[in-house]
Known about the structure:
Low-confidence stretches: none
Helix content: 55-70%
Number of strands: 2
Number of helices: 3
Strand order of the largest sheet: 1-2
Radius of gyration: 16 Å
Distance between the termini: 55 Å
Largest sheet: 2 strands, antiparallel
Mean pLDDT: 84
Order of helices and strands: HHEEH
Amino acid sequence: DNLPRHPSQLYEAILEGLFLFLILIYFRNKFLNNPGVISGLFLIFYSIFRFFVEFYRVPDEQLGYIFINLSIGQVISLIFMLSGIILFYFKYENR
């Protein structure tokens, strides 16, 4: 179809690979004695990065946009972000 597209795989590799790794390494030393906090942070940051990368991807043809012009990947990212916030809150609160 000769349409220019964004290299969304590279965006994902940089955000979800490099940046997420650096963020988790930074927080690893802060929350070393709190099991579950790093998992919550992973879910939060991964979901944020994935949500924004999904704007540059073409949605699945059979699904299209599901809810309020959001793709299924963005809806799932919001669900995982909420679960990460809940996990972080309960694990960090028990500190």
